[in-house]
Every structure is written in C-alpha cells, then in structure tokens.
C-alpha cells in the first residue's frame, strides 16, 4: 500500500489535531456541565493520540503507536477517578453543574 | 530501578494486608520497609545505570531526590496512622495510595524516556486526585478533588501534546537521543512549541503564577494531611522533574526561555507572598507560601548546569520545614471545623513543644540563619548572581522580607494571644514527626556542605 501520508501531508494532520485540541480546551474553559467538561478533556487527549499515530507513520516508527496505548490507559484511569469524585458531589449537592462549586475562595 | 520495584511491591502488600487482616501491621511494616528501601536507594549512589532500553536511568540526581521523597513519605505515613484512626475500613487504601504516589514520584525523577515521564506524572497526579477528594461526605473536599482533577488533567493534556510535538520533531521518545538532536540546527518549529507546552504543563503542576489559581482552593479544601502531602512531597517532585526535564532536553536554554522563566519566577514570588499576607485560613496561607517558594526554586533553573546541588538542598530544606509545620497544624486542627490562624492562639502555653517547632519551621521557611532555609536561599542567590540575574536576587530578598510578615502573624498568635479553648491532647506521633523533621532541618543548616556538594 502506498503511504497515504505522502498524499495528504503531515501538516494537515497537525492542523486537525491542533483544532481538536483547541475545541477541547475551550470546552473545559467555558462549559459548566461537569460531564461535558470531562468529554472536552477526552477530546484533548484523543487529539493528541491522533497526532501520535500520524507522527508514528511519518517516522515509520512503532513507538508512537505504543505510546497511544499508554495514554489511553492513563486517560481511562483518570476519568474513572474523575467520575467517582463527580458521583460524590452529586450525592452531596444533587447537581453536576460546576458553577455550584464556589465554597472555596478568598 | 530496584527502588521503584520495591516501592510498588510494598504498595501491593498494603492492599493485601487488608485482606489477610493485618491492618494493625500496615504502618509499622511500611515504615520499616521504606527505611530499608531508603538504604537500598542510597547504596546506588555513584553507581549510575540504565534499565530496559533507557526507560529508567539511575543517576546521582535521581538517587538523591528519590531518597528525599522516601524520607518525606515515611513522615507522612507515620502521621497517617493516627490521622485515619477513625476510618479503619479505608486505612489500607490510604496508605497504599500514598506508597503508589511515591512510586510515581520516583519514576518522575529517574525517567530516561518521555513515556516513563508521562506515566510517572500521571501516577502521582491520579493518586493526589483521589486523596484530595477522599473525605467523601465533606463538600469542601469534594470541591477540592474536582478542581484539582479538572485542572490537573487539563495540564496533563498540555504535557501530552508537548511530548507528541517533540516526538514529531525528533522521532524519538528517548531523552538522550532528543538531547543529541537538539544540539544541531534544522529542527522543525514544533520542537520548540512542544518544549513550551511541556513547560506550561509542568508550571501548572508546581503551581507557579500565572498557573497557580487552583492551588489555594485545593489546599484549603483537602484533608489536612493531604495538604501536607501536596505542599511538601508533590511540590518537590514537580520542581525536581521540571529541572530534570529542562536539563535533559536541552544543553543550554535559549535566552528567550530564560527571560520567560525569570518573569514567571518573579511573578510567582510576588503573587504568593502578597496574597499570603491577607489569608486567615492557615492551609490557604501555606498554599500561598508554597507558591512563593516555587518561585524561589524556579530561580535554580536560571543556572542550569550547576544548580542541581542547590536545588536539592533548597527542596530538602523547604520540604522538611513543611513537614514539621504541617505535623503541628494537623495535630492542632485535627477535630476542628476551621483551620484559622485564631485556632493557634495561645499554643505557646498549651503545647510549648509544638509551638516551638512550628516557630522554628516557619523561621526556616522565612530564611533565618541556623535553619536550613537560610543557607538554601543564600546559595541560591549566590548562584543566581553568578548567572548574571541580579534583579532576580533583589526581588528574592524583598520577598523574603515580605514573607516574614505573615509567618510572624502566626508566631505572634501563638505566643501573644490568650487561648480561648481548653487543652486538647495531641498524639505523640505528630510530636515525634515534627521533632525529627525539624532536627534534620537544623542539622542540614549546621552542615550545609554535606548535602550541597552531593550533586556536584
């Protein structure tokens, strides 16, 4: 199979990942619903995974693809902890709106 | 490497001990085992080696910092024994999470490959998210856990993107290979973007201004012992990792990076100290104090090639003083709703020993002679002047003076005000930890050269 990267170009993958990453960043910064914020963090991490795979093909090197497995496993562990904290919050205040978390300031 | 395996094994033992009903043995066994691991680690000093295709590189730097982390973990686990006494069913989990946190910390200072760096940083962070939100029924702890989780994983995303761009530019994850390639010209511009994003992510983790805003909230909301973990162990780990990362990836930082770091360090010192002046909550005050100390530690990055010894001394002095201070704070505020400065009124009469230790540790943080904090600041400033950044030193001295303002607020409350409640008994564990930690700090202050010259 011909290497498809030669036709598309690595830059386009880079731009796509940067756009996805920025979507994730703005989602974290501007959305108030905790679940949506979690999804935005996942978009950030998955944008990076996409770029890892693209670079791995670009360099003809399998290390990048192996790293994707690490980062997927880590992301899963991270979100599991996050959801557990979210459940604790929901049991205490009955809402998952992060605008309610304003008890700590000064 | 052996250290990392032994620490992970100890963590698994703690989880198993719960199943086979050895809950009472967990604290003594893990403390003894950690001391044994400390001996094992120290024996690797001056025997550099690398493991598993350079995944883990044992150097004098990693051995010295791993030993410091193990000592800090021993103190924290000793205090956990009393702190979690009323939650027996979760006891082994808390201890195991702390030990796994140590495993992540050791991986972070001995990485030879960026994947190991990422995994280490995540092990440490995930353990801290759990600990920050560990008081399930307290709304403040929930909030702290959530905020820490959101901003921590946000920062992890930046670090991951940075790693990805560096990989894209060089084709390697191996730090030594990247170091070789970074000498030559012709790297794509992504490389510098990648390094910058990794630096931003790490600045989030060490809570340097302008990425510090999560720290005070998280420190205030978390259970006090967890705050102690964050402000001593986690901060020292993050700073050491940042140093190792910067020295590992480039031989000399570009001038623009140095100026940016200088600006961040100065801003961090001022933000931390000025905002600490108006805090009533002591955990919040220590959070801002920690932010300002992060600024001081960043100064070490301005003279990269020679700073390892000074950075080690500074972090050890700061962390030991922090452990002593937090042992007293934990003991005093243990069964109280609030942790305000007013809770320390009259401590000098109620518990003269605890008050004296807290005073000494605050003096060490402020940088008064005899204590290690003074010599740490002194050698850091000397080195920064030699690197040609006089302005940073002037700002540092001004900030040390400002910091005396809020440290003395607490000291005055302890000695000059009357107590408004009766004497509460304090477990001997806290006193023991505080005395040993401050004794080590003073010992370091009397013989500064024995630690400063370790990493020459």
From TrEMBL, chain A:
<feature type="transmembrane region" description="Helical">
    <location>
        <begin position="35"/>
        <end position="55"/>
    </location>
</feature>
<comment type="function">
    <text>NDH-1 shuttles electrons from NADH, via FMN and iron-sulfur (Fe-S) centers, to quinones in the respiratory chain. The immediate electron acceptor for the enzyme in this species is believed to be a menaquinone. Couples the redox reaction to proton translocation (for every two electrons transferred, four hydrogen ions are translocated across the cytoplasmic membrane), and thus conserves the redox energy in a proton gradient.</text>
</comment>
<keyword id="KW-0520">NAD</keyword>
<feature type="transmembrane region" description="Helical">
    <location>
        <begin position="12"/>
        <end position="30"/>
    </location>
</feature>
<feature type="transmembrane region" description="Helical">
    <location>
        <begin position="67"/>
        <end position="90"/>
    </location>
</feature>
<dbReference type="GO" id="GO:0030964">
    <property type="term" value="C:NADH dehydrogenase complex"/>
</dbReference>
<keyword id="KW-0874">Quinone</keyword>
<dbReference type="GO" id="GO:0005886">
    <property type="term" value="C:plasma membrane"/>
</dbReference>
<keyword id="KW-0472">Membrane</keyword>
<protein>
    <recommendedName>
        <fullName>NADH-quinone oxidoreductase subunit K</fullName>
        <ecNumber>7.1.1.-</ecNumber>
    </recommendedName>
</protein>
<dbReference type="Pfam" id="PF00420">
    <property type="entry name" value="Oxidored_q2"/>
</dbReference>
<keyword id="KW-0812">Transmembrane</keyword>
<keyword id="KW-0813">Transport</keyword>
<keyword id="KW-1003">Cell membrane</keyword>
<dbReference type="GO" id="GO:0050136">
    <property type="term" value="F:NADH dehydrogenase (quinone) (non-electrogenic) activity"/>
</dbReference>
<dbReference type="InterPro" id="IPR039428">
    <property type="entry name" value="NUOK/Mnh_C1-like"/>
</dbReference>
<dbReference type="GO" id="GO:0048038">
    <property type="term" value="F:quinone binding"/>
</dbReference>
<keyword id="KW-1278">Translocase</keyword>
<dbReference type="GO" id="GO:0042773">
    <property type="term" value="P:ATP synthesis coupled electron transport"/>
</dbReference>
<comment type="similarity">
    <text>Belongs to the complex I subunit 4L family.</text>
</comment>
<dbReference type="InterPro" id="IPR001133">
    <property type="entry name" value="NADH_UbQ_OxRdtase_chain4L/K"/>
</dbReference>
<comment type="function">
    <text>NDH-1 shuttles electrons from NADH, via FMN and iron-sulfur (Fe-S) centers, to quinones in the respiratory chain. The immediate electron acceptor for the enzyme in this species is believed to be ubiquinone. Couples the redox reaction to proton translocation (for every two electrons transferred, four hydrogen ions are translocated across the cytoplasmic membrane), and thus conserves the redox energy in a proton gradient.</text>
</comment>
Automatic annotation (TrEMBL), chain B:
<feature type="transmembrane region" description="Helical">
    <location>
        <begin position="353"/>
        <end position="375"/>
    </location>
</feature>
<comment type="subunit">
    <text>NDH-1 is composed of 14 different subunits. Subunits NuoA, H, J, K, L, M, N constitute the membrane sector of the complex.</text>
</comment>
<keyword id="KW-0874">Quinone</keyword>
<feature type="transmembrane region" description="Helical">
    <location>
        <begin position="428"/>
        <end position="447"/>
    </location>
</feature>
<comment type="function">
    <text>NDH-1 shuttles electrons from NADH, via FMN and iron-sulfur (Fe-S) centers, to quinones in the respiratory chain. The immediate electron acceptor for the enzyme in this species is believed to be a menaquinone. Couples the redox reaction to proton translocation (for every two electrons transferred, four hydrogen ions are translocated across the cytoplasmic membrane), and thus conserves the redox energy in a proton gradient.</text>
</comment>
<dbReference type="GO" id="GO:0008137">
    <property type="term" value="F:NADH dehydrogenase (ubiquinone) activity"/>
</dbReference>
<dbReference type="GO" id="GO:0005886">
    <property type="term" value="C:plasma membrane"/>
</dbReference>
<feature type="transmembrane region" description="Helical">
    <location>
        <begin position="25"/>
        <end position="45"/>
    </location>
</feature>
<dbReference type="InterPro" id="IPR010096">
    <property type="entry name" value="NADH-Q_OxRdtase_suN/2"/>
</dbReference>
<dbReference type="GO" id="GO:0050136">
    <property type="term" value="F:NADH dehydrogenase (quinone) (non-electrogenic) activity"/>
</dbReference>
<dbReference type="InterPro" id="IPR001750">
    <property type="entry name" value="ND/Mrp_TM"/>
</dbReference>
<feature type="transmembrane region" description="Helical">
    <location>
        <begin position="387"/>
        <end position="408"/>
    </location>
</feature>
<dbReference type="Pfam" id="PF00361">
    <property type="entry name" value="Proton_antipo_M"/>
</dbReference>
<dbReference type="GO" id="GO:0048038">
    <property type="term" value="F:quinone binding"/>
</dbReference>
<protein>
    <recommendedName>
        <fullName>NADH-quinone oxidoreductase subunit N</fullName>
        <ecNumber>7.1.1.-</ecNumber>
    </recommendedName>
</protein>
<feature type="transmembrane region" description="Helical">
    <location>
        <begin position="149"/>
        <end position="169"/>
    </location>
</feature>
<keyword id="KW-0520">NAD</keyword>
<feature type="transmembrane region" description="Helical">
    <location>
        <begin position="51"/>
        <end position="79"/>
    </location>
</feature>
<keyword id="KW-1133">Transmembrane helix</keyword>
<feature type="transmembrane region" description="Helical">
    <location>
        <begin position="311"/>
        <end position="332"/>
    </location>
</feature>
<feature type="transmembrane region" description="Helical">
    <location>
        <begin position="287"/>
        <end position="305"/>
    </location>
</feature>
<feature type="transmembrane region" description="Helical">
    <location>
        <begin position="91"/>
        <end position="111"/>
    </location>
</feature>
